[in-house]
Amino acid sequence: MATAPLRLEPAPTVGTSCGHATTPDAFVLLTDVMGRLQWANRSYSSHFGPAVEGDSIEAALGLEPTSTGAKSLAEWMERQHSAERVDRSPVWEGVLECRGSDGRSHTLHCEFERRNGRNASTTGFAVTLTEEPTLENSAELRAVALDNLGEGVVLLRGDGTIVDCNRAAEEILGTKRDVLLSLNAFDSHWNVSDLHGKRLAVDQRPAYDVITNGRSHRNLIVGFQTPDRGRRWISESAEPWRSRSGEVIGVISSFSDVTEAFQIQNRLEVVVDGAGLGTWDWNVMTGHCAFNDQWGRMLGYEPSEITQHVSSWERLVHPDDLPAALAAVRSHLSGESSSYRSEHRLRRRDGSWTWILDTGRIIERSFDGQALRVAGVHVDINANKELEAQLREAHERYQAATDGTSDGLFDIEVDTGRFWLSERGWRLLGHAGAGPEGPLGLDLVRRAIHGDDFEALRASIKEHGQAGTPFGGDVRIRSNLGEYRWFRVQGSSRPSPSGGIRLSGTVQDVHVRRTAEEQRDRNFQQSLDLLCLADYECRLRQVNPAWTRVLGWTAQELVGRYISDFLHPDDLARSYVQLGAVIFGKPMVAFECRLRTASGGYRLLSWNGTPDSETWTSFCVVRDVTHAHEQARAMAANAAMLKEAQTAGRIGCWSIDLKSGLVTWTRQVYHLLGVPEAEGPISIERAQAAFPQAEQERLGVLLRSTIARGGAFRAVVNTTNGADGVRFVRGEGRVGVDAKGDVTSVMGTIMDVTAEVEREQALRDAQGQAEAASRAKSEFLANMSHEIRTPLTAIIGFAEILANDKQQALPSDAWLGYADTIRRNGEHLLSLINDILDLSKIEAGQLTTESVALQPRALVDDVLELVAMKALARGNVIRVAWQEATPSYVRSDPVRLRQVLVNIVGNAVKFTEKGRIDVKVGYAESTQRLVIAVADTGIGLTREQLSRLFGAFVQADSGTTRRFGGTGLGLRISRRLAQMLGGDITVQSEPGVGSTFVVSVMAPAVYVEPRFDEPGSHPGVEPRRFETPSGVFPRQLPLQDVRVLVAEDGPDNLQLITFHLKKAGAIVNPVENGVQAIEAVTADGTLDGKLADIAPYDLVLTDIQMPEMDGFETTRRLRLKGWLGPIIALTASAMAGDRERCLNAGCDAYASKPIDRDELIDVCRRSLVRVGR
């Protein structure tokens, strides 16, 4: 096709909306609707030569469309123009990828608009084409100055192929450019790793992320392997290389060598680890946070326990601190602050909190400036925080002290006379406000100082001011009110600006202190306690007069001496410890030791010491506690004795706190009330429970009334739980009151009064019994009066009858009957008197028993023989039954046993009429007791009568006495005798049926060989008497021709005894007393004479109770004179021991009054037989 050059100038009229129409590098073409070239600008001609009108755009530009999908560029433009577009803009823009005839790719930026002319020749398209720069045509880029940059720059295609680089890249990568252009950045031989040495895969590298996602990366530290197999570290930034349309077509990678810095950083990490710093590296986009090991260890965690994520930090921050910490992070990320800094608390593994200083800054940003990575350190500032708190507290104390100080401040330049005194100082001097400054003020103050004190102050200032040392002293300054007050002036000197001396310091009002010190000095001198000042060597530096008064040493003898010089040797060691401790700042409280007095004795002193660390001295207050300790020991001894006395006396102490309800008992109270000590302290309710219910109510009423009225109370209370037999306690108490007079407590004592109560009860019982006995005795005396008067009436009456029968007018049988009546009543009276005497002996404990062999059978037979006639007279039948095991002989007292049985059997006969009396005799071999049961069918006894049957002077009732007679003593005597014989008497009875009395006595069985050589050879058995017919043998009198001396002061008894002895054949010489008896046996007939050579008498009978000389003395003197014959004592006394006294006085035998003729003759005969007559 023929071609013709296009016109270049002027350009046809076209739309002016195409942006590149005037751009020098733009190719501007005008085509018709078919895309045939109509016009081209100069830029086209300068690049492609003259344009040929009618050529297609492709031909004109030498291009071949590759990506439009149209047959020609004209068709593509028409299609694009016809498409429905949102913006409806007349200009269309786009990018065309074309490949030229040379095979090279071209990227064209295309702008076109539709030309709507008046005719077909002016209708078409206005096209502006601009070629985008490509990686291949980067010569201009290199020409700019890349080779002069210090950073390495590498251009990469999308597949990682290296397109170009600068010289710095060659040096850093260690590879020449021509070699680099043949390499791929994603090859594995680079061995790329992150800053921790971890190898990075291709998709983890920054360039790959730029190509794939279009994101920029800044200052990422990576490592790679150099050709010499070394390791180099670079800080890489990667930016996308974009086309004009914004599409990523490659990567511009810039980097700098940070190998040396990285090595320094590694060494820094070593330092960080050594310093205990925690580091962190936070990826803002992913949240990953790399913590070093120390970050976790400073919180007590092992590295494996810390998740490498920023959430680990958030979970550990104190909830109160987290908002401020997050705000600090946001402030730095938003650019408000140049760095991140936060002080907050983190929770340690053990749950405690520690303060952390957290600092950091952004180390990597995106292309648009967003933070990608932030790194920083953690510093443990817990100790600093504590120090800050201490400093803050110290500052607050200092501020409070400064604000609250009452001191005045001054500043003086001596050479210039400049003077300043604070307002507080002027107020101390009595001024209303600040005073004059300068020389006037100085002169005013100087004249106010007391003259005696000014010179001393000036000397101190002169001495210390020149030396530059602190000066000061106490001075009196006259206040504005005209009074002198003590002030302490303290200060220091320093050079003034003018070269002189400048004095600065404080003025402190110490008037109260100095006054107090003066008072203290007076107190020091006047104190009753021993006051002293001791130095660090425990030497006395100052003492008050009390030391002399107590120890006797003068002040001159004490001051300068060591305290140890006066210590008791036993107190030296512990005193050194105490005295030394107080010197070194430890107060001494109530330390006691003994100090020697001037007289050589020792006094116990109590020390209280206060140390002064500035002067290394101690002020001690010492008190003489010798007397107090002696009193304490005495009180302790008294307390111990009181405790022992309470224990011995079974006395306890108690108290009740009415406010708390607490009851306090001593040990004895627990013991007395039977409450375990483990229960204490106890309540009021528990204390009440120790008493029976009735006593609880009584105690409650008593306590309430005592509390209501005040005062004291006393009560004896029964307790059933007391230990060791405690049944009764006496409580005494009183109320305690407070300062208001309100009753707050009750306190008192409690003691065991069981024995006392029982003794009082026993006394009451005894009194009752005594009163009952007195009543019984009154009744008894009435009975005795009746019983005694009755026989006496008969005796006296019949004796008068016989006495008045002088002519013997009465028949002989009447005489005999009257005489028998007198005899019977006399025997009854004698029996009555004997019972009374026996009971008296028993009650007095003077009745004795003997233990001899006896025959039970003979004894019982004798008793039954005595009562047989009386039983027969009352129509009673007596039967006897013997147990086969009853031994033939037993050992007991036959006289007393016979007396018991006579009473028991006699009562059975007396109270039974026309009945039966059964006597059963047995032997209990296991207990060696002889048992005799007497059962009758008599009147019997009631239960009430049985209860008092064995009482003294008691009978069943008065009717019994009147009906049956008796004294009421028999059973009492019989039971006591049975008990004395080791047994007892028991009784069973039923009224109207009869009674059974059982007598048991201790009677061991014995064997006695029979003897028949003398009468009565069987002890306890009265020998049987055999009467021979009268006249068969001459009758022999028992005392034939026996010479008997009888001493008796009673003439009737003397006549009766003489009659009986003469009737028995004796020759009797009666005398009236013991003196006459002795005179009758002496040779010269005097009291003091010797016995006659030939005894005038064979036997002496002497009464015991005689005037002038009693029987005991008579017997003693006869024996002293050598009388060897028998002496028989006669006495009417029935007291225990009479027989022993008679025998001990020298008598051979004993006979009691009233005189029994047969007994008297038998005693005389047996006494004569013993001496061979």
Question: Main attributes?
Answer:
single chain; 1173 residues; alpha+beta; Beta-Lactamase; 6-stranded antiparallel β-sheet; 37% helix
Give the topology, please.
Layout: E1 27-32, E2 37-40, H1 42-48, H2 57-61, E3 63-65, H3 73-82, E4 91-100, E5 105-115, E6 124-131, H4 139-144, E7 152-157, E8 162-165, H5 167-173, H6 177-180, E9 193-194, H7 206-213, E10 217-225, E11 231-242, E12 248-257, H8 259-275, E13 278-283, E14 289-291, H9 293-297, H10 310-316, H11 322-333, E15 340-347, E16 353-365, E17 371-380, H12 382-403, E18 408-413, E19 418-421, H13 423-428, H14 438-448, H15 451-467, E20 471-478, E21 484-495, E22 501-509, H16 511-526, E23 530-535, E24 540-543, H17 546-551, H18 555-558, H19 572-583, E25 588-596, E26 602-612, E27 617-624, H20 626-649, E28 651-657, E29 662-665, H21 667-673, E30 682-683, H22 684-688, H23 693-709, E31 712-718, E32 728-737, E33 743-752, H24 754-804, H25 812-844, E34 852-854, H26 856-873, E35 877-882, E36 890-892, H27 894-910, E37 916-924, E38 929-936, H28 943-947, H29 958-964, H30 970-980, E39 984-990, E40 994-1002, E41 1043-1047, H31 1051-1063, E42 1067-1071, H32 1074-1081, E43 1099-1103, H33 1111-1121, E44 1127-1131, H34 1138-1145, E45 1149-1152, H35 1157-1170
Parallel strand pairs: 35-37, 41-42, 41-43, 43-44, 44-45
Antiparallel strand pairs: 1-2, 1-6, 3-4, 4-5, 5-6, 7-8, 7-12, 9-10, 10-11, 11-12, 13-14, 13-17, 15-16, 16-17, 18-19, 18-22, 20-21, 21-22, 23-24, 23-27, 25-26, 26-27, 28-29, 28-33, 29-30, 31-32, 32-33, 34-36, 37-38, 38-40, 39-40
Helix pairs in contact: 24-25, 25-30, 26-27, 27-30, 32-33
